[in-house]
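Hi support team,

I submitted a single chain yesterday and got back a structure, but I'm not sure I'm reading the token output correctly. Could someone confirm the output below corresponds to the sequence I sent? I've pasted both exactly as they appear in my results page.

Thanks,
R.
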Amino acid sequence: MTGRVTSAQVAERAGVSRSAVSRVFTPGASVSARTAEKVRKAAADLGYRPNVLARAMLTGQSRIIGLVVGYLDNHFYPTALEQLSNALDAEGYHVLVFMASQTAGNIDEIVQQILDYQVDGLVLASVALSSDLAQRCRESGVPVVLFNRRQGSEDELAVVSDNVAGGRLAAKHLIDLGRTRIGHIAGWEGASTQRDREAGFLDGLQAAGLKLHARAVGDFNPDQARAAARDMFDHKDRPDAVFVANDYMAFMVMDVLRAELGLRVPEDVAVIGFDDVPAASWPAYALTTIRQDSQAMVDATVTALMAEINGSPAPDQARLPVRLIRRRSA
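Hi R., thanks for writing in. Yes, this is the structure output for that exact sequence:
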């Protein structure tokens, strides 16, 4: 057939009502297997595709979740976002992805655009939302879940790992190895993940009677992580161990230590990261790290979103546990 095929034509071909066609293409709607088979065969024969946006206007539900991502350089996020997309798909939702910078104005502008798509919910992955726009989302009935980031407001829905405990684990492990001149290369200091990881790390050092030997900021950026490593280690009074705020920066640090400065890992410098991305297990790095359970974080995010969308109380947002993964770098 030429031209746009309508649901009425599918209904006529299948010998059913238009409402039956609508139910077949509405996730979760009740329809018999025999009717669904007839409708799908008629739709395939005619080349019919349901108009999702038109249905959203009628039902008030788009079955779309907006996802705002700050950056994908960190290998933790592609894995987590694939898991999130799959989990939402299993619930009958599609994901609309937008990239944003770390500036609040940019993020607010993007979220405004997403709300125009009549999304049923929002997930913000390591980006922050202004209080005004967060209030607008609540007033519009659009639930917002923060993924791997907190903003500190009492009514926020945030899914995070126990970053403070992770920092303490990193400190304890380096101390147990007998390291005493311990440094830290921080991520972006505006991130709650960075602040919590460093706070736990410093607590762990203090509990052992140690102070931080050196500190630099890598800003979760590869070039800045390399520069931070050069500043910290290219002199005699260098640390004998370093906790790097995520794995992505830790790889850059290890490259500088070995390829530029001729230092051995872990003999001269023990290195520990945070996240446990797939590349951390590669023999070239064999990075000791603190593992975040990305699937558990995704499951908690989807559970909170579905509860809010369905008008049920959202579960308590506990910090998800982390654990130390020992490899050759420390």
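A quick pointer for reading it: The mean pLDDT is 88. Let us know if anything else looks off.

Best,
Support desk
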